[in-house]
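--- STAGE predict ---
source: upstream dedup step, 1 unique chain passed
mode: sequence only
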Amino acid sequence: MFDDISIDELLKLKDTGELTVIDVRSPSEFKNSTIPGSINIPFFSDEERAEVGTLYKQVSQQAAKERGLEIVSAKLPDFVKNFSNVDGEKAVFCWRGGMRSRTSATVLALMGIEVLRLDGGYRSYRNWVVDTLETSEFKPHAYVLNGYTGSGKTTILHRLHEQDYPVIDLEGLANHRGSIFGQIGLEPNNQKTFDALLLEDIERLNESPYVLFEGESKRIGKVTLPPFMLEKKEQGTQLFIDIPIEERINNILEDYQPWEHKQNCLEAFTRIKKRIHTPIAKQIESDLRSEDYASAVRLLLEYYYDPLYDHSTRQIPDNHKVNIKANNADEAVDLIREYIKDGLPAATL
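--- STAGE serialize ---
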């Protein structure tokens, strides 16, 4: 037989690094959302799950069980082999801790492979994430990176993270750059995935004296920041990265590589075209079509993103601001390190 474990027990074992968590749901369910760090050994393929589900709804529960048994019987050798190739302690889960995980654990036990089963399945994990985020008290002081589009804020965070500074990359967790063009070349995460990844960072860094993250708006692509993160942002020390516009243009071109995504860029531009003075908008569209991307980016910065940013940051109190004037991201990293090390009052560096 097998033992059921609670979500708290699973997370404690997972933190030791000695437990492999295995999602036995279909590949599309796994892709949509899972427990971070899990691997997928599906009980049914997407097509098989749809077939069994249709029988359950349109014929009967018994018909669905019989067809499910028929499908699984043919797949059992490979299914068991995949589990036997996983070293160490293992735990399985499905959506609600029902038929798929129970059958998986039972069959594996009969084959001499011991596994634990998550009581309540992925749904219990998702409920835990939502409840924890709603009641979280995030303790570290926040250093919030602000700056015009293209200032290299994400690059700066990555460089600081590489040097073991406590960093949360919100755009990385969302897999979206946070602008109208922000999903170009990316596949943005949904709210479930973002919440799970954010919570892992929150718990990892909650005892740190401070944390660095970017000053995002409430929404990043498809996801919404929890209220406590917005509150932490408002209360934090605001670091304003001031980098020359030529460097910002180069950063944007390197990051987005618009020549690889010409049509996507044009489609994204149509969503903001009406907000830009008509002659300028026409020139931007012409530049995008002729692949003069440096000119298009410059005009977008000067006539759309920079004025928008000025408006959004006008209300930040001066005593919360620190100006970081640098020529590039590397210089900004050094100045931020100096500021944090010396504990300087809010001032201009």
